Amino acid sequence: MKKNQISLFSGVMLALSSLIGSGWLFGAGSAAQVAGPSSIISWIIGAAIMMLIAFNYVELGTMFPESGGMSRFAEYSHGQLLGFLSAWANWVSLITLIPIEAVACVQYMSSWPWSWANWTRGFFHNGTITNEGLWAVYLFMFVFSLINFGSVKLLTRFTSLIAVFKLLIPSLTIIFLILAGFHPSNFGSSAATFMPYGTKGIFQAVTVSGIILSYDAFQTVINLAGEIEKPHKNIFRGVWISLSVTAIIYVLLEVAFIGAVEPSMLAKAGWHGVDFASPFADIAILLGLTWLSVLLYMDAFISPFGTGVTFVATSARTLMAMTKSGNVPAFLGRVNKKYKTPRYAMVWDLVLAMALVFFFRNWSELATVVSVSTFVAYATGPVAAISLRKLRPNFNRPFKSVHLKWVAPVSFVLTGLVIYWAMWPTTIEVIFVVLLGLPIYFYYQFKKKTKNFVQQFKSSIWLLTYLAFISVISYMGSNAFGGNNTFKYPWDFVIVIIASILFYIWGVKSSYDGEDLKDAEKVNKDVKVDD
């Protein structure tokens, strides 16, 4: 293995350090409130959606093993405008994850029950980070970035240590909550009691409870592809191992949480009334597991911290990759000669992340930005994967499956549904944030005197129209998802599914053989298919 390269084990640990972040600490409680016992299905649906989406990116990532690669795939198949939209949306989601994890650290610190920690109580008030807490958030974000300033070896050693702790605490929580107080009756005795809020509650929980957000970090392996040992094999292994382990942990955590709630509490107000500030820690205290509650309060600090460190690495490499197209300042792509890390991109990300958290000091507000912007970017993955098979069937593909023919359209449809599930007006707000990047793109295209802009626009209009469609259907959809109920449930789902299939076909047909494919050929020519 070359110096500063990431092994499979380190890559998996890095991904797990991202995947098991602040979401697991309150995701189970939030999902149970929204969907009751059927929230177990919500976690399974979330995992299935992410695995199908990852299927597309594993093929693309092994074809083009470059750092920040997820910012380049759509550009190769559809030109720089679509590539920029995809990269910008993905970057917005990644940069927002940095303050999310810092806010989570500070929020949990503010609820520490020990007398010596009274000085942290002023960090959080009425659901919002205070001015005092804001300085603590900034400090955490600075440390996240500082750890990434060193070599990838330093990063992977740190995250491997954190990941072990992250795996241990959830596992202990699952085991001891089930042993100490498990009530099978909480899961219901019929379909109606298992799904007290119907199937709508299951789909709502997928997005509003942080479930999708909790699975999103599989892309850590893809974006660090240029630094992974044997990328033609280890990208596939790293993504699937980390996602599978995470899915098992999250589902079992939900089972343990549902079973541990006191039936008397449910009898009073139902699942909507189950409201814990620190779900697992509060239940551990009620069950007399004081030692476990202490570990949970510690993990409420460590898990977000580890995830924040990892996403500094991922977001910086995404921004670095965007400079290759000349649509953002070139200096952001400079790499430190000694450690091979994109320090300028890290500093820029830190500054913008600090600005974000100054205006959005609530975890939920930041999380909504992440969820929708991520899936706007993911909409291009299935289209790019199939389009590149059509444009360059002779490319080296270490991971090539016959199943992509159906996985790609299905994952595209699911992407549209997830954006819709985010509920009006979140959909239009985040889509607007994504489109705010267009003036930057137009400036650099004018500066470069681009000649093929018309072709770029023709190849991108399908996504712009799709975003407009999702905004309209979100407004007119069922009231269960924030709409005005013009299209009632489940007919709103039917409309999104049919329209998404049509937009997928349009997107694939919009690909073209341009100059960007020559860059793709350079990256792909040295890719190994077999050892």
UniProtKB/TrEMBL annotation:
TM helices/strands, residue ranges: 41-60, 81-109, 129-149, 161-182, 202-226, 238-260, 280-298, 344-360, 366-386, 406-424, 430-447, 459-477, 489-508
Name recorded for this polypeptide: APC family permease
Keyword terms: Membrane, Transmembrane, Transmembrane helix
Subcellular location: Membrane
Lineage per the UniProt record: Bacteria, Bacillati, Bacillota, Bacilli, Lactobacillales
Keyword hit for Membrane: yes
Species of the source: Lactobacillus jensenii
PANTHER family: ASPARTATE-PROTON SYMPORTER, PTHR47547
Superkingdom in the source lineage: Bacteria
A UniProt-annotated Pfam family: AA_permease_2
Topology within the bilayer: Multi-pass membrane protein
